[in-house]
């Protein structure tokens, strides 16, 4: 297991349980998520995205690398689930402020 900042570790732990509510707790109320060309802002939109993009496909992210890049925590690893091409390697770029995720951008 790699050493992750607490809000990211909490997000990853909740994701391993497919717990959308637990994952949401790691985000600031006005956080922004960018994934697959879409932008989701605020808890309501992020929860909808988590349920449709993660929970519905049982997508579990297993990080294996972490680095700091221009103030962002960049985490990469395999995501496995019930989706075409599984597992796929994704990169998650997190911005953290006050122990909460304020921005997340996900890319292949």
Which structural traits does this protein have?
28% helix, 6 strands, alpha+beta, six-stranded mixed β-sheet, 46% strand, 108 residues
SSE series: HHEEHEEEE
The beta-strand count equals: 6
Task: State Rg.
Answer: 12 Å
Largest sheet: 6 strands, mixed
Overall shape: it is globular
Q: What structural class do you assign from the helix and strand content? A: alpha+beta
Low-confidence segments: none
Characterize the quaternary organization of these chains: single chain
Distance separating the two termini: 21 Å
Strand line-up in the sheet with most strands: 2-1-6-5-4-3
Count every helix, treating DSSP H or I runs of 4 or more residues as helices: 3
Give the % helix.
Answer: 25-40%
Q: Please indicate the percent range of residues in DSSP E strands (runs of 2 or more).
A: over 45%
Mean pLDDT: 97
Structure explained in plain terms:
The protein is α+β, with helices and mostly antiparallel strands and 108 residues long. Helices cover 28% and strands 46% of the residues. The chain has three helices and six strands; from the N terminus they run ααββαββββ. The protein has helices at 6-16, 20-24, 42-55; strands at residues 27-35, 38-41, 60-69, 72-80, 88-97, 100-107. A six-stranded mixed sheet has the order 2-1-6-5-4-3, with helices on one face. The longest helix has 14 residues, at 42-55. The protein starts with 5 loop residues before the first helix and ends with a strand.
